[in-house]
Amino acid sequence: MTAARRAAGGVVWRPEGDGVRVALVHRPRYDDWSLPKGKLNPQENALVAAVREVYEETGVRAVPQVRLPGARYPTDEAGAEKSVDYWSMRARGDDREPGDDEVDVVRWVPPDEAARLLSYASDRRVVYAFAELPAVTSVVVVVRHARAGSRADWRRPDSERPLDALGEAQVAALTPVLDLFAPSRLVSAPPLRCRATVAPLAADRRPVEVEAVLGEEARAQPEVVAGGGG
């Protein structure tokens, strides 16, 4: 069985009045209305592709928030399929005129109107799922530290154990994904390996806040984490 072609996109929203509006795109080639989406580049992370495609088709820089149900559907009579991953995304600014070679109109509409305007049932299901979400005011991304070699082979205090070569590669791959969330705070456990995992995100923009309660020592003492005891 041939693997489905992968794509990614989003339900991009912005507040307006007492509600929200979501972005739909019109594609003249098909004369349809759809959610902004597009194919992944080779080896591209799906979330990176989703944010990139949204920007290319709408001109909107968007911050991903909640993963939505995906879609899978046939693309031709031979049985080829496309698999699409979707995220809810908050618009944070328009950097250029909307549209690309495939899109000629971007329309911002309420979710219920979007469901009526969209050309495909798969897109409508994604919008219905978005409409059922509670209001998302903040997003917390939890990341385990990148690989730091073997604790058994490290002879100095464990808190000083650094990232190994694979860990450095993991950080390089992870940083652009985390940056998509435009984090306003970076909070780390005290060990060096934890701080090093998020350090590239701090570059000239925000410091890494070190919180002892996130460390292993604090987890071994629940009364400290709870703020009390006795």
Write the layout of secondary structure elements.
Elements: E1 5-16, E2 19-27, E3 32-34, E4 37-39, H1 46-58, E5 60-74, E6 81-94, E7 105-109, H2 111-117, H3 121-131, H4 165-179, E8 186-188, H5 192-198, E9 208-210, H6 216-219, H7 222-226
Parallel strand pairs: 1-6, 8-9
Antiparallel strand pairs: 1-2, 1-4, 2-3, 2-7, 5-6
Q: How would you describe what is shown here?
A:
The chain has helices at 46-58, 111-117, 121-131, 165-179, 192-198, 216-219, 222-226; strands at residues 5-16, 19-27, 32-34, 37-39, 60-74, 81-94, 105-109, 186-188, 208-210. With 230 residues, it is α+β, with helices and mostly antiparallel strands.
How far apart are the termini? Answer: 61 Å
| Structural class determined from secondary elements | alpha+beta
Question: Residue-averaged pLDDT, rounded?
Answer: 88
Q: What is the H/E order?
A: EEEEHEEEHHHEHEHH
Compute the number of strand runs.
9
Q: Per DSSP, what share of the residues sits in E-state strands of 2 or more residues? A: 25-35%
Tally of separate helices: 7
Radius of gyration: 21 Å
- Low-pLDDT parts are 222-230
Major sheet: size, sense and barrel closure? 7 strands, mixed
Shape: elongated
What portion of residues is helical? 25-40%
